[in-house]
């Protein structure tokens, strides 16, 4: 039997509190695996090896921010833990490479991560560059 994680990442409580009163972030939520980010979007900071309760991300646009030095299996664990909560969008952005992959669009999930096109890369350009 798998035990559900009860911890939430740093910065998530404000999103949770707002969701409890019927509000949601207007912008994409950045889930940083590389520490604090100086971005205008809502940012939650998670430790790559720790289990979290990701339910607060249901029906939100989510971008996981990692680096090429982040353990791949840890990034995959975070992706696999977020997906069951059905985010409206889920992507992974490698801040040090300024490139990423699309993982899911609502219920539509890619069989394997699909590299982002130029339009997506431009939209996410700079995220995590100042981390």
Summed up, what is this model?
The chain is α/β, with parallel strands linked by helices and 131 residues long. It has three helices and six strands; from the N terminus they run αβββαβββα.
Low-confidence region ranges: none
Please summarize the sheet with the most strands: 6 strands, mixed
| Percentage of residues in DSSP E strands | 25-35%
By DSSP, the count of extended strands is 6
Number of domains: 1
Q: Helix count, per DSSP? A: 3
Helix content: 10-25%
Distance between the termini: 37 Å
Using the alpha-carbon principal axes, give the shape: globular
Which structural class matches the secondary elements? alpha/beta
Mean pLDDT: 90
Q: Describe the strand arrangement of the main beta sheet, using strand numbers.
A: 2-1-3-4-5-6
Order of helices and strands: HEEEHEEEH
Rounded radius of gyration (Å): 14 Å
Characterization of the model:
The protein has helices spanning 12-20, 72-82, 118-124, and strands spanning 29-32, 43-45, 61-66, 89-94, 99-105, 108-115. The chain is of the alpha/beta class. The protein has one domain. A 6-stranded mixed beta sheet has the order 2-1-3-4-5-6, with helices on one face. A hairpin with a 2-residue loop joins strand 5 (99-105) and strand 6 (108-115). The N and C termini lie far apart (37 Å).
């Amino acid at each position: 039997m798998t035990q559900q994680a009860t911890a939430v990442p740093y910065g998530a409580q404000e999103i949770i509190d707002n969701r409890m009163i019927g509000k949601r972030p207007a912008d994409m939520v950045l889930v940083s695996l590389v520490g604090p980010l100086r971005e205008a979007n809502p940012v939650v900071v998670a430790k790559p090896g720790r289990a979290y309760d990701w339910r607060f991300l249901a029906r939100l646009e989510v971008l996981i921010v990692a680096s090429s030095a982040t353990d791949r299996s840890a990034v995959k664990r975070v992706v696999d833990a977020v997906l069951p909560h059905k985010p409206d969008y889920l992507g992974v952005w490698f801040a040090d490479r300024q490139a990423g992959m699309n993982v899911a669009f609502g219920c539509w999930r890619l069989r394997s991560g699909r590299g982002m096109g130029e339009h997506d890369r431009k939209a996410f350009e700079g995220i995590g560059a100042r981390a």
